[in-house]
């Protein structure tokens, strides 16, 4: 597995632009409708968080490309080793490209490990879609997740 190490604010912004494709969602009157969702598990121990999640599109239309934003309530260490398709966007934010998703299909699982600054006893992890390939998602409840993860080594499902 190849990884991307992102250090410093300038590199993080450049990498985030590369992951996001450099543009925002197009605003059009007749955009395709899709329903993105993310489900997975987070585990934190000793200031390290392991995160696995799978994107899904419940349809009715395909999503040509999608990117998810992961935001922690505590800052991440400056140096992170992230999987291909993921980039550091800010002190507490990582974005990951999940790619194209057909209607009523499951995407590839995303797995990453991050180190938090210090060893917090708990962290709030927020997950949401930052780019949906120009589609419209009328059910935002299942692509916006908030998970309180305790530094216990226990698995927290979302």
Task: Provide the descriptors you would attach to this structure in a database record.
single chain, 158 residues, mainly beta, 5-stranded antiparallel β-sheet, 1 helix, elongated, disordered N terminus
List the helices and strands and how they pair.
Elements: E1 3-6, H1 9-20, E2 36-45, E3 48-57, E4 67-72, E5 80-83, E6 86-90, E7 93-97, E8 105-106, E9 110-115, E10 122-131, E11 145-150, E12 155-157
Antiparallel strand pairs: 1-5, 2-3, 2-12, 3-8, 3-9, 4-7, 4-10, 6-7, 10-11
Description of the molecule:
It is built from one helix and twelve strands; from the N terminus they run βαβββββββββββ. The longest helix has 12 residues. A hairpin with a 2-residue loop joins β2 and β3. The protein has 158 residues and is mainly beta. The N terminus is likely disordered. Helices cover 8% and strands 45% of the residues. The strands form three sheets. Strands 2, 3, 8, 9 and 12 form a five-stranded antiparallel β-sheet that branches. The protein is elongated and about 45 Å long.
Q: How would you sum up the global shape?
A: elongated
Largest sheet: 5 strands, antiparallel
Spell out the helices and strands N to C. EHEEEEEEEEEEE
Helical residue percent band: under 10%
DSSP strand tally: 12
